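Hello,

I think I submitted the magnesium ion job twice by accident. Can you confirm which output corresponds to this input? Input:
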Amino acid sequence: MSLVIDNVESGYDRAPILHGVSMRVDPGELVAVVGSNGAGKTTLVRTISGLLAVRSGDVADDDGSLTKLTPAKRARRGTVMVPEGRKLFPQLTVGQNIELGRRAARGRTGGQDPVEALLEAFPIVKERWGQQANLLSGGEQQMVALTRAVAARPRYLLLDEPSLGLSPLKTLDVFRLIELIRERTGAGILLVEQMADQALAAADRAYVLEHGRVSMEGPAAELRASDEIRRAYLGVA
Amino acid sequence: MEPVILGLVLGGLYALLAQSFVLTFITTKTLNFAVGEFVALGAFATIAVSSWSWLPSFGRVAVGFLAASVVGALAYRFIVLPFTTQGEHDTRWLLSTVALSFVMLNLITNVEGPSPQRSDTARISGSVDVLGVGVSKQQLLLAVLAVVISLILIVVSQRTSIGLVMRAVSQDPETTSLMGISPRLVGMGAYAVAMGLAGLAGVLYAATVGASPVMGAPLLVASIAVAVIGGLGSLWGPLLGGALYGVLSEVASFQYGAIWGETAGLLLVIAVLVWKPEGLLGRRMEVKL
Ligand SMILES: Nc1ncnc2c1ncn2[C@@H]1O[C@H](COP(=O)(O)OP(=O)(O)OP(=O)(O)O)[C@@H](O)[C@H]1O
Ligand SMILES: [Mg+2]
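Support: Only one job matched these inputs. Its output is below.
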């Protein structure tokens, strides 16, 4: 029972980007993927969500391989992505964006609505409910994008740089929200981040992606303490 | 007064077809240049079942709508979609729909022959008096239908969950797919409705002029013109565009002779393209839709 990425190769027309990447995310686990610009992090989450085709290898959820499924089918099976740059529907309201997220949860409803819990903890989203999405600040947009993903009742959640373009303070808020999502949904979360320090602090386990290959992996605390990581990603000489 | 009324009524037929361009453009950013042949397809499908006396004429009209609708959905899936896969600048669908137009024209001509056939379904004879101008009931029906259908589409797009999905696809198909919604299915649905409308226009139009394989061709230019004037991104566009185009071309042909009719309409298109390339209502609806 986990999201398994097995020896995956993928990329663009004539540019292979991922060269045999293997990862695993267990339910309830927060797994960080760190790596510098152009390492292939976005390529990785787009491949898992189906926006990019797998060339070889396999991506599978609890029910089996996902590689032949469209992005829509993968989302309905519970592998949900929050894309880089949030990608809210700019001319729809906050509420409409979140309603659209619910579409992916068709057939997997019941129990407590996880969205309610988030709205309670972060009332700002509820306060903006009727507002057009492109009028929100970056931090608010990220909150809405995360709430929209939670409305899809994810079993596995892929987050592509949720801190992108946010102030340190807002980034903190976003990380708190991610913690809450893990707690309330029990989803396995794959968190792609350039903010390596904060991501590693929050995560259980982590992978380091370099030039489309996993160069290191292990418990997040261990990686955070290792010399190599401190030099390369945490700006410590 | 007379050319204004006649122009408004005439604009209705164009508006109905323009609405089918707008529908496919909003959802898939493609236009079906074979729409004229779907007009003929609808008309002939209804003629094909016109001897089924057990089927009320409403049902026969529905057959015309449905035939065009089913073929339209398939056309999107197999002739449009495969030629849109290379990003926003992929315009191969343009050629493939033009090719479809030729193929359908030949197929229909082979089956039905080139000469016009009489169609009696949904014919309403006689005329009514509109502000002192005699208007054929048949044409008035088309105009009223164009308005009613446009209003229905607008309400659906703004008030229903299908409409919400439509607007989402229109803004960002990729992200829509991350919501568990298949943009491909939405596109097929849009084509089904859009080509169904073309078929419906064909049934009603054939009741006045008869059905022939080329019956849609003269409507194509005018309805694209109407769609462009109103704005391809706006469901209100065809109503405004149809009214302007219809009135202008009727007034011009009334004043200066028939050849000036269509010319005036096309000059209007050029003026709009220069002044407001997104169409008169384009920008406003982009925000709303
Ligand atoms: N659409 C594309 N076509 C071709 N090459 C691309 C495309 N998108 C990205 N690439 C290339 O793939 C490589 C990996 O890009 P990717 O976006 O996955 O990196 P990333 O780790 O997410 O970087 P960042 O931290 O800047 O977001 C880069 O070299 C990039 O130039
Ligand atoms: Mg990236």
